[in-house]
C-alpha cells in the first residue's frame, strides 16, 4: 500500500552504510525518503535501489538544471531508476521543464512526480538581491510557479510560507516544502521556515525534514513524534 504520510526524510549522509542504517530504523508507512546530492554523488543509483528494496518510495532530489536535452535525459534516467519523485530547477526555464514533461509522458511504466524547485528555502530577500533579483521571495516563487504550471509539472519545491499564495494561484500543483522545523529546533542554514503543523495548515502537501530527524538522539522516535503531532 502506498505511504499515506506527508513526511519525506532527507537522508543527507556521506555514505550508503549510514543512510541504510538510518532507513532500517524507520517505518515505510510513516515516511518516504529523500536522496540528495551528497549521498547520490558518493553512492550512486545503488543507494536508491537499496532503499527501494527496504520498502521506501524515494524522492531523488538532484535539482537538475541544464539545457533542455541534458535535463530531460537525466529525468528519463531517474524514471528508469523507479523513483517516486524527481525535480528540476524552474529557473532552467519553460522549454527545459517542457522537455522533461515530454520525456516522462513518453516513459513506459510508472512515472515519477515531476517537481520544480522555485526559490531555495535557504534564501531570503537579500540573497535574491545578491544574484540580481530585486524581488521578494514570494513574487519570484509565484512567477516560477506560473512557468511550471505552463510546462505541465506536477508540483513545486517552495517554502511553506508561500503555500497559501500558491494554492490560490496554482491549485493543481502539489507543494513539497523543506525548511520545516519543529518548535524549538535550530533553523540551521534555512531561512524561510515553518513548523510541521503550520506547514500543513498553510497548504503543504509534503514536508521535507532532515536534521531535526536524522540528528536526533532517536531518529525513529523523532519521526513518530512529528507524525503524531500532525
Ligand atoms: O529549497 C530547498 C530545496 C531542497 N532542500 C533540501 O531539503 C533538505 C532539508 O534538510 P534539513 O536538514 O531539514 O534542513 C536538504 O536535503 C536540502 O537539500 C532545502 O532545504 N530547500
In terms of topology, how is this protein built?
Elements: E1 7-10, H1 16-25, E2 32-35, H2 37-43, H3 45-53, E3 58-64, H4 68-80, E4 85-89, H5 94-105, E5 113-117, H6 125-130, H7 137-150, E6 155-157, H8 163-169, E7 174-177, H9 196-202, E8 206-209, H10 211-214, H11 219-229
Parallel strand pairs: 1-2, 1-8, 2-3, 3-4, 4-5, 5-6, 6-7, 7-8
Helix pairs in contact: 4-5
GO molecular function: orotidine-5'-phosphate decarboxylase activity
Keywords: Decarboxylase, Lyase, Pyrimidine biosynthesis
Pfam families: OMPdecase
Number of helices: 11
CATH level 4 superfamily? Aldolase class I
> Residue share in helices?
40-55%
List unreliable stretches of 5+ residues: none
User: What is the CATH topology descriptor?
Assistant: TIM Barrel
Oligomer: single chain
Strand content: 15-25%
Highest CATH level, the class = Alpha Beta
Report mean pLDDT, rounded to a whole number.
98
The major pleated sheet works out as:
8 strands, parallel, barrel
- The strand line-up of the biggest sheet is 1-2-3-4-5-6-7-8
Amino acid at each position: 500500500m502506498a505511504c499515506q504520510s506527508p513526511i519525506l526524510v532527507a537522508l543527507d549522509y556521506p555514505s550508503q552504510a549510514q543512510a541504510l542504517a538510518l532507513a532500517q530504523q524507520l517505518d515505510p508507512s510513516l515516511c518516504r525518503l529523500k536522496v540528495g546530492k551528497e549521498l547520490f554523488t558518493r553512492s550512486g543509483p545503488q543507494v536508491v535501489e537499496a532503499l527501494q528494496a527496504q520498502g521506501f518510495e524515494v524522492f531523488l532530489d538532484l535539482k537538475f538544471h541544464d539545457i533542455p536535452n541534458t535535463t530531460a535525459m537525466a529525468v528519463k534516467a531517474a524514471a528508469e531508476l523507479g523513483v517516486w519523485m524527481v525535480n528540476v530547477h524552474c529557473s532552467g526555464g519553460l522549454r527545459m521543464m517542457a522537455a522533461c514533461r515530454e520525456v516522462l509522458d513518453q516513459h513506459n511504466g510508472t512515472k515519477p512526480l515531476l517537481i520544480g524547485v522555485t526559490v531555495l528555502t535557504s534564501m531570503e530577500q537579500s540573497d535574491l538581491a545578491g544574484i540580481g533579483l530585486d524581488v521578494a521571495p514570494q513574487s519570484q516563487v509565484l512567477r516560477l510557479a506560473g512557468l511550471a504550471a505552463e510546462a505541465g509539472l506536477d508540483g513545486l519545491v517552495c517554502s511553506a510560507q508561500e503555500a497559501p499564495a500558491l494554492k490560490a494561484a496554482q491549485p493543481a500543483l502539489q507543494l513539497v516544502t523543506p525548511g520545516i522545523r519543529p518548535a524549538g529546533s535550530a533553523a540551521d542554514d534555512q531561512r524561510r521556515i515553518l513548523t510541521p503543523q503550520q506547514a500543513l495548515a498553510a497548504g503543504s502537501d509534503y514536508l521535507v525534514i532532515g536534521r531535526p530527524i536524522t540528528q536526533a538522539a532517536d531518529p525513529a522516535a523523532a519521526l513518530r513524534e512529528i507524525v503524531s503531532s500532525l
